[in-house]
Amino acid sequence: MMRVCKVFAKPNSVKQQLEAMGLLLEYFQTAIQQGYSSRVTRTQNDSPTAPGFYQWNETVRFLRDQLVTEGWKRRNISNIPLITHPKNIMSIDVCSGNKFTGVEDKAPSTRNSKGQATASLIEYNQYSLDLKELNTSDTERNKENIWILLFYLDQEKQELRSELSLPSKYSLIGSEDRKVTDWIMRLILPTLPLNPVPAEPLPNFGPDIDFTIAKKAG
Question: Which branch of life, at top level (predicted)?
Fold first, then answer.
């Protein structure tokens, strides 16, 4: 029987779901905003792929920065940067999404193709939930569900959309594209308006220091 995806889009219901997982909405909003700030401060001297990479990397970094203070653990599995709940009940991966990210009545997917490592991680989500329905305890499961923080920059609408969602599988799109396309649960996070490009601060190299090089005796 096909599982129906549960979608939470009302702010109060999203907040309740996050708090049940020991999470705050502010963690994600801060990470998404910092990722965008890093993107728009790239220059023409950066590589063509730098804006997207820096946005993703800083989103990962700031989400981790906040959650490690709450006891969450950094993990890197096959170069996938995860942040894991203190009780190992869930981990979060960060991915850019397609234009349907954060849209309640659409089905989003990851923007980029994912490899076998991602497939192996999310494969357990369906299995673990089936075990839960059979009243199997968390200790017997001994693995965590993998959630994905999807984000999307909508230039036309001048907004950032995001969601924290629990994937069930990924699909082959075309001959080579393997993207996460199916979801068990989606928590639609509030849309963030694009801020103006921040002014780049002048570098601060600290105070001038005078020093003397003594001539070696002999």
Answer: Bacteria
